[in-house]
């Protein structure tokens, strides 16, 4: 094994050890985080299904805002409830709430997002994002 001779080599080796240790600590939890090119956030995939959604009392509507319902996020190796809140509306877009999707016995978290034409297909994957006669 080569001994690091420069400061940069030392820090790169230390970074590699820290990353490898962190990744190996997540494996027993059944967590897989896969970075994707189209997203700034990594995909979160876990073995544990989320609990049933909680019932929330929705406050009165606010002009210029959209209600983002509460949902579970994966934090610290468990599902954590995040309460709903009003978010500033984006004219011409529909808000899609965060959701958990089951795929092959695993649960994948999809973050909340804005959709331009309201069809539920993310605009970056939609061939006709503004077609009103889509369906």
TrEMBL record:
Residues 111-135 are annotated as: Disordered. It comes from the Bacteria. Residues 111-128 have a biased composition (Basic and acidic residues). This is Uncharacterized protein. It comes from Variovorax ginsengisoli. The lineage of its organism: Bacteria, Pseudomonadati, Pseudomonadota, Betaproteobacteria, Burkholderiales.
């Amino acid at each position: 094994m080569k001994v690091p001779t420069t400061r940069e080599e030392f820090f790169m080796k230390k970074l590699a050890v820290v990353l490898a240790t962190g990744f190996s600590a997540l494996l027993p939890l059944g967590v897989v985080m896969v970075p994707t090119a189209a997203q700034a956030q990594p995909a979160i995939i876990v073995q544990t299904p989320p609990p049933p959604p909680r019932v929330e009392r929705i406050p009165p509507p606010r002009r210029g805002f959209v209600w983002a319902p509460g949902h579970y996020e994966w934090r610290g190796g468990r599902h954590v409830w995040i309460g709903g809140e009003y978010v500033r509306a984006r004219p011409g877009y529909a808000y899609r709430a965060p959701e958990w999707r089951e795929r092959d016995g695993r649960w994948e978290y999809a973050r909340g997002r804005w959709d331009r034409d309201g069809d539920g297909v993310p605009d970056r994957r939609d061939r006709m994002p503004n077609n009103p006669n889509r369906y």
